[in-house]
Write a structure and sequence with these properties.
This protein is α+β, with helices and mostly antiparallel strands and 73 residues long. Helix content is 21%, strand content 19%. Strands 1-2-3 form a three-stranded mixed sheet. The longest helix has 9 residues. The model has no long low-confidence stretch (mean pLDDT 87).
């Protein structure tokens, strides 16, 4: 769909809704396309601390102790 700048100003809410529904909306100046109105993909919420109870494992106290098989290295 192509609209001129005046119509875009008048019907901006409707054009935004159409863009969110996947419609391509082009805004033209003197019948020359100048702008494409596109929806920004929804981003998921950032992970929150403690949001995965039971999935977090603790490292053992000996995690950074030397490995006996690698003593020669």
């Amino acid at each position: 769909m192509q609209v001129n700048i005046h119509d875009a100003k008048t019907h901006l809410s409707r054009l935004i809704r159409l863009a969110l529904e996947g419609e391509e909306v082009i805004i033209a100046k003197r019948r020359q396309p100048v702008v494409r109105l596109v929806a920004i993909p929804q981003q998921s919420d950032p992970p929150r601390l403690g949001g995965a109870p039971g999935l977090i494992r603790r490292m053992g106290d000996d995690f950074d102790d030397p490995i006996p098989d690698f003593e020669g290295y």
